Amino acid sequence: MVKMKLTVSKEAAKYIENHLNHPNQKLLLSYDDGVGPFSKVGVCSLDTAFQIIAVSKELPTPDYDAKLESNIGEFEYKAYSKAYLGENLRLDLNEKYKTLSLSSEEETLDSSIVLLDLTGNTEEFV
After folding, report:
1. pTM score, whole prediction
2. Are 52 and 30 a contacting pair, CB within 8 Å?
3. Listed residue (92, 94, 63) closest to 78, CA to CA
4. Residue ranges covered by each domain of the chain
5. C-alpha to C-alpha distance for 93 and 81, rounded to whole angstroms
6. CA–CA separation, 59 vs 1, rounded Å?
7. Is the separation of the CB atoms in 96 and 88 below 8 Å?
8. What is the pLDDT of residues 15-72, one digit of tens each?
9. Radius of gyration (Cα) for the chain, nearest Å?
10. Comparing C-alpha atoms, which of 94, 91, 52, 56 is closest to residue 71?
11. CATH code at 5-125
12. Of 68, 86, 84, which Cα lies nearest the Cα of 76?
């Protein structure tokens, strides 16, 4: 079995670091499907949508029951969302629009990844 991995480009890594950089956080690669406390609505179209969410390391995140290794650290994700991902994922920054894009070897999965910093909002999700 091939282990999934995520390669984050230098530009995307710097962008994430500039927006989500707390010493006591963990990163979630969240499939926005309306399941869990961080996904309020979900997507009602044929598109797939992902978010990168920073939360406190102490915050329980039982919906995020799988781990994805990357060159900038570990991401947690919903195991069932693996069906929408590929084995070799890449996260890039579109310099012109300052948006993140998630792709696999086969296709672009989401060309406009949302970044959310919820590190200080632990009470709302417990």
Report:
1. 0.84
2. yes
3. 63
4. 5-125
5. 22
6. 30
7. no
8. 999 988 888 899 999 987 655 556 555 445 455 789 999 999 999 999 999 999 999 9
9. 14
10. 91
11. 2.60.300.12
12. 68
